[in-house]
Amino acid sequence: MDVDKLRHLLDRVARQQTDVSEALTELAELPFVDLPFARVDHHRTLRQGIPEVVFAQGKTSDQVVGIIAELKRRGHGVLATRLQPEHFGALKRQFPDLAVDEFGRTALQRGSVPAHRAHAKVLVVTAGTSDLPIAAEAEATLSACGIEPERVTDVGVAGLHRLLPEVERLRRAHAVIVIAGMEGALASVVGGLVSAPVIAVPTSVGYGAAFEGVAALLGMLTSCAAGVTVVNIDNGFGAAIAAVRMVDRFLVVSADEGPGGEHR
Questions:
Q1: How many other C-beta atoms can be found within 10 angstroms of the C-beta atom of residue 155?
Q2: Which CATH number, 3.70.10.10, 3.40.190.10, 1.10.357.10, 3.40.50.1970, labels domain 115-254?
Q3: Rg (alpha carbons) of the chain, rounded to whole number
Q4: Residue 261 contacts by C-beta under 8 Å, 6 or more apart in sequence?
Q5: Furthest C-alpha separation in the chain
Q6: Is residue 52 within 8 Å of residue 41, measured between CB atoms?
Q7: Which string of b and e fits 206-238 if b means at least 16 CB within 10 Å?
Q8: How many whole angstroms separate alpha carbon 171 and alpha carbon 123?
Q9: If residue 66 lies in a helix (H) or strand (E), which one and from where to where?
């Protein structure tokens, strides 16, 4: 249940269109529902503005299906990340309405989302084509939260001239997610060009001394561009959620300030 649904329920009670016992029945499952293998958190949207997300890695197909079925039963949107090959067929059979992306390893069905997010501008920037699966995870997460992302692909520092035509787009964004492997230098470059929040995602792309993303992670953490935020290796989901939280605060404040506070 999200804030709008809860407000609607309380309004119905206040208008005596729903009696208290019916309202209590709806609210009884709000904290969580205890399945044999998971406790599905139905209260998370009220606390965080985002429903529970299913991290599918390490779960059986039956477990992933069961958790998604419970989320859908309560009217939540659905986002599953890190799907494994054995999950795809089960999800497509059980939930034909889910958008399953085998490349990004996600499954998505958008639920109700705050209207202000439709005005958010978040760019997902990749250093190379090899970083695209992580970009796809970030984009699915943004979409699940009600933000339609824009993508800038293959603009890494090995050919920096490819990034320069995109600078104006970068500067118009409310937040920029930069995804890079190897040495991860692209995050510092973008961080030095824009005033918007930059969320850096190191990827496990690279040869031996890249240490499966550790080199990029350390490079991003020691960036000389002030204020770059860094998430874990290959964590496109975490970067997107960070961007949503930042954008939420910015757009809500801008709306309170009126047209003069609008980001341009």
A1: 24
A2: 3.40.50.1970
A3: 20
A4: 253, 254, 255
A5: 67
A6: yes
A7: beeebebbebbbebbeebebeebbbbebbbbbb
A8: 10
A9: helix 61-73
Q: Three-state SS for 201?
A: strand
The confidence score (pLDDT) of residue 259 equals 45
| Per-residue pLDDT at 47 | 73
CB 112 within 8 A of CB 6: no
Residue ranges per structural domain of the chain: 8-23+30-109, 115-254
Question: Is there a contact between 166 and 155 (Cβ–Cβ < 8 Å)?
Answer: yes
**The pLDDT value given to residue 30:** 61
**Mean pLDDT for each 10-residue chunk of the chain (264 residues)?**
62 74 62 72 71 91 93 85 96 94 95 85 96 98 94 94 94 96 96 96 96 97 95 98 90 56 43
Q: What is the DSSP letter of 152?
A: E
What local confidence, expressed as pLDDT, does residue 256 receive? Answer: 54
CA distance between the termini of the chain: 33
Tokens in use for 260? 């003069």
pLDDT at 264: 41
CA distance 35 to 63: 9
Residue type at 243?
Answer: A
